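Record type: monomer structure entry
Structure origin: computed from sequence
Chain ID: A
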Amino acid sequence: MRLRFILSEIGIGLRRNLSMTISVILVTFVSLTFVGSAALLQLQIGKMKDDWYDKVEVSVFLCPATSPEPTCASGEVTEDQKTAILDALAEPEVKPFVEEIFFETKEEAFDSFRKQFGDQSWASVATVDDMNSSYRIKLTDPSQYQVVAEVVSGRQGVESVQDQRRLFDRLFLVIDRATLLTGGLAAVMLIAAVLLITTTIRLSALSRRRETGIMRLVGASNLFIQLPFMLEGAIAATVGSLLAVGGLWLGVEYLVTDWLGGTVSWIPYVTTADVLTVAPFLVAAAILLAAISSLVTLSRYTKV
């Protein structure tokens, strides 16, 4: 009988405040979609770091015949200068950071250039002599790329040094800032959701003050009186969270996996499995929102 009464009270409350309930569902859906997007962006950054940082190399571009750099004043890099660079990388304080060194000739660099840019009209004027020979240094610990880069930078015969991790760090910084923006929008929407759930519960409680008074007179407990109102907010918020999970799943499946994955296949993307990993936290966040709103509202508006 008690369960039937609570369920009937929940149904009455949801019907009486149908427009507010729909508003709660929509606001919760939008806010938790932002929260889920921020979480998935962080997972995306983690996947990219795990995949790319292990492949980070320091590229040491050697002087070509003509270069304006002061380190190339003597012209094209000499064999003695190459030996000096390798000796510097073999020093005891540097060697532990170097896993392997690859040498790329100008001819090999030209072949790679033609494969990458051969369909561009401006690439047809390039020749082998325009290319740089280079050392590609694979690191044992990609986070220590700066140690190796500093050793070879500024040496005679070295035109420039490019560490790939610095390029990746800039990309990840942009994604991190996008995550912060998404998180900020999510916080604003979550506040709106709390206020809307609070308003809905308050209206529901005010519309049933007579019933609440009668229940007080017959000795009903606070929990028994307040439970229908709490469950109304929890149901609306949970429906919103499930819609958010569904929206994120569709977005990842069709926009990320099918579209982006088919266009740019060399990036490790988040998958629908990651959405399912985030889903329990979104549902828990929705229930927490409803609980906070209920605690703020019911202690005041269910008093008679």
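Annotation 1: The longest strand covers residues 98-104.
Annotation 2: Residues 164-207 form the longest helix (44 residues).
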